[in-house]
Design goal:
By secondary structure, the chain is of the alpha+beta class. The chain has 6 domains: 100 residues, 3-Layer(aba) Sandwich (Rossmann fold), CATH 3.40.50; 151 residues, D-amino Acid Aminotransferase, Chain A, domain 1 (2-Layer Sandwich); 70 residues, 2-Layer Sandwich (Dna Ligase, domain 1); 121 residues, ATP-grasp fold, B domain (D-amino Acid Aminotransferase, Chain A, domain 1, 2-Layer Sandwich); 88 residues, no CATH class; 75 residues, RNA polymerase II/Efflux pump adaptor protein, barrel-sandwich hybrid domain (OB fold (Dihydrolipoamide Acetyltransferase, E2P), Beta Barrel), CATH 2.40.50. The protein has 16 helices and 36 strands. The protein has an 8-stranded antiparallel β-sheet, sandwiched between helices. Strands 3-2-1-4-5 form a 5-stranded parallel β-sheet. The longest helix is centred in the middle third of the chain and has 17 residues. It is globular. The termini are far apart. Its cofactor is biotin.
């Protein structure tokens, strides 16, 4: 059945919106972007043929507003909607509303989304289709006594999961029997808050597991194929960090078996379009159905790299009613691909999200595929996910791909705000990753036990010296009249006084694009440097360091216990105190939410609240003063 359309509205933002529009334009479709006030100047807005404002910055008032998205489609004359991933992409009511409005939804039928969105119901369907599932309880009886009895029969460790859950929310790990009651209460409370559905299921934990998923496609003519597997075992807090294809633990026979089960899963729910069937694989190589993502995945580029196919093109063709472009026997795999997700977060400070202005970003310097939605001079806002780009390396084999990816992360640094790029390079070189010994919980275990990989790198002596030279010699950098013989620099709380410029070091060139060529000890080397006020952002040997020249007599606000300031730009989620309240050391004062993460401000010392400068739902800048205390003497 043909379903013609000419104009595609992409109901998303950032790198996935840019990526979808790139293929749509190549195929001759007009493209429509939607945007919030925070994204008015974003690259995906400039890339589209038309752009329509949805609303204010928070996603609940813009990208998650179904009525606003449908109104934007009508105003722009769009006759198809691509949801990307995240936001509304797995909302059955959105898919149904798009079709009810007479538009083509570039995704699966609402019934398939609904079927796979109910995790207990989905597992029952999988069992009926012969797809292996981990033992568990999927019943409708939800009283505490029944859940406790089923948990006792399953044994520990086990997982308590929200039936309507996703993204790790509504999930609790139970390692001992006496933890069950607390886990049930916590999971139910979180599930009701996040999904409006407090139903729970139980599942035996597959210890020491790897996460392997299979890309599937189905058309409207009853055909379905798989495009091989991806290994997404490198995760933290159940969020993927690095993905690769093929999996280093999967051979031809296992690939055929998992592919067959994934196709059976898609056919069992009348699927259409792109989908991903996720499995956990135990130490013995047995796979168990985890869930199905009814959309395009973040990590789809690694499948594109090893198959030579454009998965968005397949989505568009299938949505238009065309049959699958290839049969299973015609699909070929070539080489190995690895994707690393670039997050604007600080892995050395509890993965704290980072927001602010992009000073330097030249992804073309990476020498490989980089999907992104950033631009120099643009802002990373606090309202959305912290993932801003994906580096994708394709090589002859896994060793080749990993080497290319590590080099690319060093060659295309993001300057202006902290990111996880240095952590990614270290992870890709870690012996456990190289030897494919990771499990889905290994990164969290490392964080708990102080793995050196998660210790902030210290600037080498060369970085201090080069920073001093650049700050001393940069045109217009130092105020006139200040001596250049000594320079005090600060980096993450450490201060040093250096000669500027340092002896034996010469800056040969500092170009307008930030490239630095310098010489020391008879060697010429390269770096990248951007300045922002009194701060220098320096990328050297794959690491980024931020140096500042403190003002004489400046007060260190970070160590002032009388001031509770926003750690990052975000939105105030809660304020728990009022003027006149007495507080004790460590007491929670207020909470700032940014990029789906809550950060609590605590009293640094005992005292009385002198003033409160923000209320719930107020947007705040990084460093904004929220609560002032009169400290006990």
């Amino acid at each position: 059945m043909s379903r013609r359309f000419e104009t595609v509205l992409v109901a998303n933002r950032g790198e996935i919106a840019c990526r979808v529009m790139r293929t749509a334009r190549r195929l001759g479709y007009r493209t429509v972007a939607v945007y919030s006030d925070a994204d008015a100047a974003a690259p995906h807005v400039r890339q589209a043929d038309l752009a329509v404002r949805l609303g204010p910055g928070p996603a609940s008032e813009s990208y998650l507003n179904v009525a606003a998205v449908l109104d934007a489609a009508a105003r722009a004359g769009a006759d198809a909607v691509h949801p990307g991933y995240g936001f509304l992409s797995e909302r059955a009511d959105f898919a149904a509303a798009v079709e009810a409005a007479g538009l083509v939804f570039i995704g699966p039928p609402a019934e398939a989304i609904r079927a796979m969105g109910d995790k207990a119901g989905a597992k029952r369907r999988m069992l009926a289709a012969g797809v292996p599932c981990a033992p568990g309880y999927l019943g409708d009886e939800q009283d505490e006594g029944r859940l406790a009895a089923e948990a006792e029969a399953l044994g520990v460790p086990l997982l308590v999961k929200a039936v309507a859950g996703g993204g790790g929310r509504g999930m609790r790990l139970v390692r001992r029997a006496d933890e069950l009651a607390t886990a049930l209460a916590g999971a139910r409370r979180e599930a009701e808050s996040a999904f409006g559905d407090g139903r729970l299921m139980l599942e035996r934990l597959i210890a020491g597991a790897r996460h392997v998923e299979v890309q599937v496609f189905a058309d409207a003519h009853g055909h379905a194929v798989h495009l091989g597997e991806r290994d997404c075992t490198a995760q933290r807090r159940r969020q993927k960090v690095v993905e690769e294809a093929p999996s280093p633990i999967v051979g031809p026979e296992m690939r055929a078996t998992m592919g067959r089960d994934a196709v059976a899963a898609a056919l069992a729910v009348g699927y259409r379009g792109a989908g991903t069937v996720e499995f956990v694989v135990d130490a013995g190589g047995r796979h168990f159905f985890l869930e199905m993502n009814t959309r395009l995945q973040v990590e789809h580029p690694v499948t594109e790299a090893i198959t030579g196919l454009d998965l968005v093109e397949w989505q568009l063709r299938i949505a238009a009613g065309e049959p699958l472009p290839l049969t299973q026997d015609q699909i070929r795999f070539d080489g190995h691909a690895v994707e690393a997700r670039l997050y604007t977060e600080d892995p050395y400070a509890g993965w704290t999200p980072q927001t602010g202005r992009v000073l330097h970003w030249r992804p073309e310097d990476a020498g490989l595929r980089v999907d992104h939605g950033l631009a120099e001079g643009g802002e990373v806002p606090p309202y959305y996910d912290a993932m801003v780009a994906k580096f994708v390396a394709h090589g002859r084999d896994r060793t080749d791909a990993l080497r290319r990816l590590r080099r690319a992360l060093a060659d295309a640094p993001l300057l202006g705000l902290r990111s996880n790029a240095g952590f990614l390079r270290a992870l890709l070189a870690h012996p456990d990753f190289v030897a494919a010994r990771l499990t889905t919980t290994r990164l969290d275990e490392w964080a708990e036990h102080g793995e050196p990989l998660l210790q902030r790198p210290c600037p080498p002596e060369a970085a201090w010296a080069l920073a001093a030279a650049l700050l001393a010699t940069g045109a217009g950098w130092r105020p006139a009249g200040l001596a250049t013989s000594e320079l005090t620099l600060a980096h993450d709380g450490e201060r040093r006084t250096l000669r500027a410029p340092p002896p034996g070091l010469q800056v040969l060139e500092w170009a307008a694009d930030g490239r630095v060529r310098w010489q020391a000890d008879g060697l010429q080397r390269h770096a990248l440097a951007r300045r922002d006020g009194a701060t220098l952002h320096l990328a050297l040997d794959g690491e980024v360091f931020v140096f500042s020249e403190p003002m004489a007599g400046a007060r260190d606000v970070a160590e002032d216990a009388s001031r509770a300031c926003a750690p990052v730009a975000g939105v105030v989620a809660q304020v728990l105190v009022a003027p006149g309240d007495r507080v004790e050391t460590g007491q929670r004062l207020a909470c700032v939410e940014a990029m789906k993460m809550e950060m609590w401000l605590q009293a640094g010392a005992a005292g009385v609240v002198r003033a409160v400068h923000a209320a719930a739902k107020d947007p705040v800048a990084a460093g904004a003063l929220l609560v002032e205390l009169e400290l006990d003497s």
